[in-house]
Amino acid sequence: METDTAELILQTFTEVLIAPDATKEAIEILKSIKNLRILLTGGLVKKNTNALTWKKVNGGMLVQENDNGYLTPEDIKVVTKKIPNEKELEDLLFAWKVAKHIKSNAIVFAKNSSTIGIGAGQMSRVDSARIAVHKSKDMIELLNLESTFRSNFVVASDAFFPFADGIIEAVDAGATAIIQPGGSIRDHEVIQAADDAGISMVFTNMRHFKH
After folding, report:
1. 164 and 85 belong to one structural domain
2. Per residue in 189-205, pLDDT tens?
3. Same domain, 87 and 183
4. In whole angstroms, how far apart are CA 32 and each of 5, 17, 191?
5. pLDDT surpassing 60 at residue 47
6. Are residues 202 and 92 in contact, defined by beta-carbon separation less than 8 angstroms?
């Protein structure tokens, strides 16, 4: 992290900052934030195939492999008539990484490699989409961001859309591209909704599902 990034962080309410590394000058700038915790992790391992997680359940425990899925642009499949442009693809892959760490059902709105709205932990995916819409509007108004943040953003869903309603919520809010695993029995309806709206959609054939 360099000084220009640190100066941007000064403009927002921040309590914890995690970064691979930071210059001495950046750290000095950030020291002006009262009670800020700075964690420098060093390089993070992208994949650990031997790692396991466990959850306590009634009568025993559930053991499963870590969610180590990693995507490249070559791994995704465009399923709509419209193809995401280079900037949208970059934001889609960023939003997909964020969705991995959000409680399911997870919906992530992103633009310029930044999250602008997150909906999580709902029993209905469309409700998560509605929360993401609400959160994005609140953030834009609170931070007085440019009006361009109200449109042309991308969406990531940690699991497939079972119905087209979540797509419609995102499109009505200004989404132009969506990344999701695919695999619903109604994929054709969801794809058709995206085509009707003139947006792009890509499938990962991989899902995230954090509880």
Report:
1. yes
2. 999 999 999 999 999 99
3. yes
4. 14, 14, 49
5. no
6. yes
Which residues span the domain enclosing 131?
73-203
Distance from CA of residue 131 to its chain's centroid? 14
Indicate yes or no: pTM above 0.85: no
Query: Same domain, yes or no, for 122 and 30?
Result: no
**Buried-exposed string 53-82: b where 16+ CB fall within 10 A, e elsewhere:** eeeeeeeeeeeeeeeebebeeeebeebbeb
Residues 177 and 109 in one domain: yes
DSSP letter string over 120-153?
-S-SSHHHHHHHHHHHHHHHHHHTT--GGGGSSE
Residues 164 and 80 both lie in one domain: yes
Beta pairing class for 153-157 and 175-180: parallel
Q: Are 120 and 107 in contact (CB under 8 A)?
A: yes
The H or E element containing residue 107 is: strand 107-111
Q: What domain count does the chain have?
A: 2
Beta bridge partners of 157: 107
Say whether the peptide bond before residue 66 is cis (omega within 30 degrees of 0): no
The dihedrals phi and psi of 119, each to the nearest 5 degrees, come to: -120, 135
* Residue 88 is assigned to a structural domain of this protein: yes
- Cα–Cα distance, 174 to 149 (Å, whole number): 9
Alpha-carbon distance of 117 to 109, in angstroms, equals: 5
